[in-house]
Amino acid sequence: MGDEDDFVIESADAGASSTIPMEAGQIKKGGYMMIKGKPCKVLSISVSKTGKHGHAKCNFVATDIFTGKKYEDMIPSTHGTTVPIVNRSDWEVIDIDGDELTLMDEAGNQKTDLNLPSYPEDMAQQIRDAWSGGENTVTVTVQAAVGIEQVIAFKKDG
Length: 158
Hints:
Layout: E1 19-23, E2 32-35, E3 38-47, E4 57-64, E5 70-76, E6 80-84, E7 87-97, E8 100-104, E9 110-115, H1 123-131, E10 137-145, E11 148-157
Family: Belongs to the eIF-5A family.
GO biological process, one term: positive regulation of translational elongation
Pfam families: eIF-5a, IF5A-like_N
């Protein structure tokens, strides 16, 4: 028998990835995909016919979910690509200090590592105006993908 020291595992993680592999032909309009390393929402897909040398090609037009920048990509329909795992959550604004937000969710957890959004340009000022020193309850929607979190929407209650 070998020494037990031969099988020591120094560290382990759950193996959770921020993206999942998917065949290009399986991606649908309105879905998400990675283009040039950016998480994007697919606006349109056009599929070319199979040529004499191979595969049908999918031409994707998509926008970056954080900046709104438009990207295009062409991938053979049977080839693999990656799809970001996108999560959304709602948080109540507790404080605004400069551009930094202090947020709280329904469970009472606080988040202090987010700034006011830079896209679209006027949203940060709209959130400031709606919050106006705590008179109103302002709820922001935080979207997270590939290690990036950003406020993408807000609503005012009261």
